[in-house]
Amino acid sequence: MTSHPGPGVAPRVKRRCRFLPICALVFAAVATRGMAENKATEFQGIVTATVTREGMEPERLVFTRQSHRLRIENATNKLAPINILDLAADKLTIVYPHNRTYMVIDLARKPPQQAMPAWSQIFPGQTIGPKIPAGPAHSVDAGVPSPRPMPAMPAMPAMPAMPSLPSLPPGVGPGAGVGASLPVPPSNGFGAPGMPGMAAGLRMPAGAPQGAVELKQTGNAEEICGMKCTLYTGSSLGEAVEIWATGDAALFPFRVLEQHGITRRFGLQMLADTWPELLRGKSLFPLRAILKTEPGGHERLSFRVEAIERKEIGDDTLFLPPDKHLEIQPPSLPGIPDARPVSGVAR
Asked: Is the pTM of this model over 0.70?
């Protein structure tokens, strides 16, 4: 027996089918509006900053962002490397204008921990030290007497006890005289009295990581270039830093110019080298950063944002390696560039 739907079922099904395209259009409109709002709030434009290092002329850095791409260049030194970052793919391209080369580094990929190769792998067939040829085995002929054993050495006589010295009167002997009353200059570093340099008292507790520092947020606030900033402070190994920063979502993740793409991860880590990484770990962008020695407060490094300009960036070639540049291999060790080309054809 076949059942038939009631008279009101078919119209309801038709109405549901009619509403499905309308719901899809509504969801699409909401998603498009959300993407448009994100794009509208996402910073696009140019940030100009000045970097001053102790004993060097100030340098002008220009940060240019277009969508997910960021370009960092030194406007003062045209031969300095240029950094091009793909923020979505987490890749860094370093362009070297002085020799028309560039390299691409995957920032998400950690370099493998390579052990020191054995001597035989570095110099095959060679050994350390003089090589002594193996000679024929020698045997003692029958009837030849064996050599007599060496006589034992006589025991050394005991040293006589030192006689006790008589007590000296006050003011006589070592430590007395004019030099004993002279003040000793305080130590300013490395345990040498009167030597300038790093601050004294750089003893770290046992087991503490070398150069470890934590940025501490203070209650101080200030507006710089239209951005609300909070003061962060930190100190380590005779260095102190004051950073006025805002959330990097308002601009972009902070980076400085990379020379070779690999940062040293061993040895003593100073604040002058690690402060950009500390900011990235807290998703902060600095509007002003000043690094000083302590005690004394001598300024060693400063970073100051001079201008923030929101504008459309229409030149896509700014975020690509220039023409007629050869791609080379990234370095395997910090500070050791590898000039081997990836391909024999320049871009």
From this structure: no
